[in-house]
Amino acid sequence: MSSENDIRAKRLARLAALGGASSTRSAPVDQTKEEVQETEKSLPPSAQTVQTPASTPVVVPEHISTPTSVPTPNPSVVSANPVKTPILSEQEQTSEWFKRELEVLFMATVDPTHTSRGLLVLPGAIAELEDNLLGEDSIESIFMEILSEIGIPSHYKTTIEYLYNVYHNAFRSKRMLPVKTPLYQIKTGILNKVIKFAASYGFISFQVPEMFINNDLAQSIDLFIRRSDDLTPFLIDIINSSIEQESLLTFLNIFVPYISAKLRGINITERDYVNYIAIFETLVNIKPVASVFSQIEGFQPPSRSQHLDFEHKTLLGPLLRLSPLLDKVGIYYFTDNVNNVPKTQIGNIYESLQNEYKVLVDRLFYIIDKLIRGSLETRESLLIWLSEFINLSHLRRGSHADPTKLPSDAIMLNISLILIRLSMPFLDYPTFSKIDKIDVDFFAKTKLIDIHDESRVNSTIQEADEYYKLRSEENLSAPNFISSCFNLTLAYLHYGMGGIYIQYDRLKNQVRQMEERIQMIQNNRVPPGVNPAMARMLSNQLPMLTKGLNNFQITKHTIQAIFSHRPLQLEIFDFIVGSTTFITKLIDPNHKYPQQKLNIPIYHITNVSQLDDHDFLKTKTPEPWKYYPEFILEGIINYCKFSTNFRGCPLVQNFEKLQLFVEFTTILLRCPELLGNPHMKANLVEVLFIGSLPMQNGEAGFMSQIFNSNKLVIDNILYSLLDFYVMVEKTGASSQFYDKFNSRYYISIILEELWKFPAYRSQLTDYSKNNVDFFIRFIARMLNDTTYLLDETFNELNLIHDYQQEIKKRLEGQEKNEELGNDEELQQKLESSEKKAKSYMGLSNKTMELFKLFTKEVPQGFVLPEIVDRLAGMLNYNLSIMVGPKCTQLKVSNPEKYDFEPKKILTYLCEIYSNLSKQEKFMIAVSRDGRSFNLDYFKRAERILTTRTYIENNIIKNLIDLAERSEKQRLFEENEELELGDIPDEFLDPLMYTLMEDPVKLPSSKISIDRSTIKAHLLSDSTDPFNRMPLKLDDVIDDIELREKIEEFKRSKKQDRLKEISVSVSQDVDME
Question: Which end of the chain is flanked by fewer CB atoms within 10 Å, N or C?
């Protein structure tokens, strides 16, 4: 028989004839068999396989025997003519054993008489037996003869399937071989070599597929996918063989891209998706594979400027997008008609989906974690892949973005969760001992994350660019992996996961609109803007609309299921808490947080006007925080707000960690220099609002205990809310006009909750006495809102009254008012006014409730000159609307539909009057309101309150007492005004038309105005009322000359009056 070297030379010659080995080589890697086995043990439970394939059944023809040793003669049968058995040498015994084992291992034989048993006859081996015995040196030539000359047995479809069967049979024979069998070491050595050569030729079947008969690479890889459980050890040994031959990348460039390409058309509704994941787990669990993974062809997309290429045309994209959030996957869970599924079953579906998704995320994390740990090159390449992907995905946060043209929610959520898990080891709650490893100068050191067009925390983009340009000249070292991972996570939290929030809100609107549309069609009503012909067409499309609605509802349910999964949401919130800790440490002047508590405010203002001076506040923002991109903070805030929509909300029943978040929120609201974007502050306030609402079981809101126990919160939250109530006037959003009222409504609810605790009531009293300007600033804004909201409410109620009356007339057949349009247009106008009235009324009620609470607690604070006249005027005007001649116009059908309770509003007004009734200045202000004050209105209110409400008698008594005193004061001042006679126009306030007491001159318009008037104006408008130029109270100039003229005018009038009295007295004396 030929020597081993001759056989190897023959194989190499054949390889050379077919083109030789691939020129692509991986770096040589040393890995022992023991290391491979150890790596295999580290697979996750879901991916672990049997360590040897011997326990896995393999199809073997029934007629093939499996002898493992020479048969033992039956001692009971004695030959009449015993023949002496020849003694065989070790080589001869081995050869005889191997001949029999060939039939088990290779399904081949060197005995031509065995062909009837379906075995392959090996002519080459038979020929060599003439000169040599079968043994270890024969193995390679047997493999070569079968694979490249004879061909594998017909019942095997591919070379790999056959080689695996040989590999498996060798393991089984080795396991079944008794340790005490003769020549045990030699036999096991042969079997080990068969195993090794099976793996080696398995690798060659990929490296040079033309070398073997009936070798189909696609079918071979499909076999690994289809039978991933039992073929895993074989795959590992094939990879190890490629490593030994320094051709790892050659194999991976064939194997991995095919797997990934096949995965593109797979989703989790197809149960074999787990096989693909198992293969990826097997691959990355081999350290050399993980170390070169980024070098595999297809790791980066064909076009690194196309975001969809990352998801669909890379090795990792199809794997990372596996999710219940993929299109049409939800139907697999929720069936074709989700509306018919009982609620109990919906809950079971949620649980099933959550469990499967958790396992999926666990396995995806395992794969990425192994790659991160594979090598520095793989880690860096993966970070670049992730950063380029998110840099191209900013449009996911666009309100009008087309989801079909953007990366999917599926891949974005998966990557976000994986990055969160990668970040958690260095956000170690509660000590946060490793948080210093996050580089605060990350954005100065790298452009990994593209922030050139990003809004900044409290600077312009140009200012930030200039700052980073200067820092770049310092030759800063590159940031570490921890810093890159942390900031990438925040980017994905905002742009990746944040896109889901936009999608969810859009889905809710689409579901509501489609339900309304379907209901209108079913009721034979024509939708707005649709002509009758189009309506008939829509009616025909009703089944399609119904199906579309079902799809929307399924997607909505899928999102709800994932975000209701509390364990998953707790992981995200843990990252949130860690991130807020990092940011707080960054803005802490001493950078000692959390080991030392942060004292706030960080910057102490010297003048209340500084709170409204954004440019000034920017100069006090700490660096480098002021130059950070806003998304660092926005993703945190938006997640917390979004998570409160679901029953798995991680803020609830999570007291210790929630405290840290509420403290962080309070810091941002209390220190206006830290954040310039009022829209983000508004979202923080909304989260606080949700936390203050009572729970479904009637218990206090989940933040209520923190409001009453946390010192930092107690000392600062009230001031923060009162300040933001004013600052929210402009949010920067296109919807800012409505946003400000929503935020003020939220603040009102929070303040009602805080009012239960004495500490906050005491603080408000202190502000009214010792921080007067701040107090006035807040109350003035409340006055503006109340005036506007009640005006708008009453206007809409008047319109509703008119519309309802018109509809009633038309139903009775009376003449139509054509100005109100046809019946359909009239109905639309009514619905529009009803919607507005409900919104305005809700806000009005809350604002009036605050006035009632505050005036009762600190009545003296509401008689300050800047406030008292406006407050009295607002109350008098609204009282005249409620009980005056026009009150009948407020009478509408079903007023409760709009939260309109006339008696409740009247009660609020009268309680506020009562609370302030003992304040002399307030009484005078009420009397001076010549537009609305009327004693008859108060008496009418008294009758209504006495007969139709249960209001306390002392409140009614205070109300009437105030009204009567105000009437006397009004008559007294009328007499005084008559005594002054005609007042020169230059002495009259140009806005209030009253005699000025303390005139000041405005610097730009040069107009003189009373100080109290301009001070009140500037509380709500920081411009000159006559030319709209910017104006501060400090800029006004005392008009001393005018003041002296007014004083002189008043003195002269007083002297004239005294003279008249003197003359009158003297005349009376003469008459006597």
Answer: C
- Is residue 584 within 8 A of residue 674, CB to CB? The reply is no
Say if strands 999-1001 and 120-121 run parallel, antiparallel, or are unpaired. unpaired
Euclidean distance between CA atoms 585 and 865, whole angstroms = 43
Residue 131, pLDDT score: 79
pLDDT, tens digit, 9 for 90 and up, residues 987-998: 898 987 788 889
Amino acid (1-letter code) at residue 717:
I
What is the percent of the chain where pLDDT is above 90? 66
Beta bridge partners of 1030: 1023
pLDDT > 80? residue 933: yes
State yes or no: pLDDT of 38 exceeds 50.
no
Q: What three-state secondary structure class fits 629? A: strand
Helices (H), 523-630: 532-540, 542-563, 566-587, 614-618
Q: How many CB atoms lie within 10 A of CB 920?
A: 10
SS (H, E, C) 992-1038: CCCECCCEEECCCCCCEEEHHHHHHHHCCCCECCCCCCECCHHHCEE
At residue 411's C-alpha, the angle toward residues 410 and 414, to 5°, is 90
CA distance 942 to 181: 113
Range 517-521 average pLDDT: 81
Helices (H), ranges, 598-654: 614-618, 631-643
Residues 6 or more apart in contact with residue 853 via CB below 8 angstroms: 751, 752, 755
From the number of C-beta atoms within 10 Å of its C-beta (0-12, 13-18, 19+), residue 1033 rates as middle
| 189 and 135 Cβ atoms separated by less than 8 Å | no
Question: Coil, helix or strand for 618?
Answer: helix
Indicate whether 5 pLDDT > 80. no
Tokens of residue 468, six digits: 């980073």
Burial class (CB in 10 A: 0-12, 13-18, 19+), 653: exposed
- Write out the two tokens for 613: 């001076």
Q: What is the pLDDT of residue 1048?
A: 86
Q: Which amino acid is at 447?
A: K
Phi then psi dihedrals of residue 473, to 5 deg? -75, -5
Directed axis angle between helix 184-207 and helix 248-263, to 10°?
60
Q: Torsion angle of alpha carbons 37, 40, 42, 45, nearest 10°?
A: -130
Q: What pTM was computed for the model?
A: 0.85
Q: How far apart are CA 595 and CA 859, in angstroms?
A: 43
